[in-house]
């Protein structure tokens, strides 16, 4: 347990520092803009490029791993969507945001730093694949469902073009694709370029976690949604459990890959869920509250997941 605390203290400590700094300085939300720009367009893309470009190409083409992980994640999405739509009689738009709140983890900001810290460099490839492919699918599903609701007024062709542009030109996707190309062609990188990429990549986790703390402080808890009673356990407990069981059931994956996927699934609701809600004017305050509450609760649940991984309590093979 001491090892787990040693892993999580600097990790959640950076979030806490960002939270406290925002509370003390009372800077406006706009002040965070350039830091977020640096994280999204420079630091995290450099980290993804570094991880992918240094990996043998045969490990990067595990479509079976990606398909299985996405199927597990979207089973949670579908469950929460059906609960919101048919049991609670919410609108399609509200049900969509609620489903994302329980299935869209903070894998971009929190995932790479925590997984590499806890599991080492062997977790780099599954982390990069999950972050890129899950984000790409989320970018497609959200506007598509909102269009069905009528919250998106763009024409079908304009919507499809905007989705394609958002997916293909996203810095995470571009940097990963470039890393794929370098790995596939076994290209030699200049020492100066490698140092430059390393320099940027080292800033990714600290900056992202600090920015996350600031973001949480700028969105105070005003309203606790009723749905939080089932969204929180779905996100922090059911999601990692389903990912673990499904990957084990399919089989053929390195234990580190399964542990990395499970760890990423255990992360709290992504701040992008609030952004999506804000973009379409639905479930905004409640999305903000869900992010804050799942992040606070994840201190306990992520600690438990890390303890299970580090202690060897998770069976290496669940199904014979």
UniProtKB/TrEMBL annotation:
It is found in: Cell membrane. It comes from the Bacteria. GO terms for biological process: transmembrane transport. It is a multi-pass membrane protein. Its main location: membrane. GO terms for cellular component: plasma membrane. Belongs to the auxin efflux carrier (TC 2.A.69) family. This is AEC family transporter. It comes from Rhizobium lusitanum.
């Amino acid at each position: 347990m001491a090892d787990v605390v040693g892993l999580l203290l600097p990790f959640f400590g950076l979030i806490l520092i960002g939270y406290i700094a925002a509370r003390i300085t009372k800077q406006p939300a706009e002040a965070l803009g350039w830091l977020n720009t640096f994280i999204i367009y420079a630091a995290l893309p450099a980290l993804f490029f570094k991880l992918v470009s240094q990996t043998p190409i045969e490990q990067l083409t595990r479509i079976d791993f990606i398909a299985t992980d996405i199927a597990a994640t979207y089973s949670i999405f579908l469950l929460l969507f059906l609960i919101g739509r048919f049991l609670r009689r919410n609108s399609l738009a509200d049900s969509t945001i609620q489903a994302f709140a329980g299935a869209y983890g903070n894998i971009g900001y929190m995932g790479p730093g925590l997984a590499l810290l806890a599991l080492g460099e062997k977790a780099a490839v599954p982390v990069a694949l999950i972050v890129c492919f899950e984000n790409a699918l989320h970018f497609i599903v959200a506007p598509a469902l909102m269009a069905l609701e009528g919250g998106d007024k763009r024409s079908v062709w304009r919507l499809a073009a905007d989705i394609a542009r958002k997916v293909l030109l996203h810095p995470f996707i571009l940097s990963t694709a470039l890393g794929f190309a370098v790995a596939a062609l076994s290209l030699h990188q200049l020492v100066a370029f490698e140092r430059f990429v390393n320099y940027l990549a080292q800033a990714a986790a600290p900056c992202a976690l600090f920015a996350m703390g600031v973001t949480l402080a700028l969105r105070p808890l005003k309203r606790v949604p009723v749905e939080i009673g089932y969204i929180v356990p779905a996100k922090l407990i059911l999601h990692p459990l389903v990912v673990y069981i499904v990957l084990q059931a399919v089989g053929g994956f390195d234990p580190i890959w399964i542990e990395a996927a499970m760890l990423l699934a255990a992360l709290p609701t992504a701040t992008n869920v609030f952004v999506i809600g804000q973009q379409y004017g639905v479930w905004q305050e409640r999305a903000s509250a869900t992010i804050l509450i799942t992040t606070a609760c994840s201190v306990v649940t992520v600690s438990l997941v890390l303890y299970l991984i580090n202690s060897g309590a998770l069976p290496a093979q669940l199904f014979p």
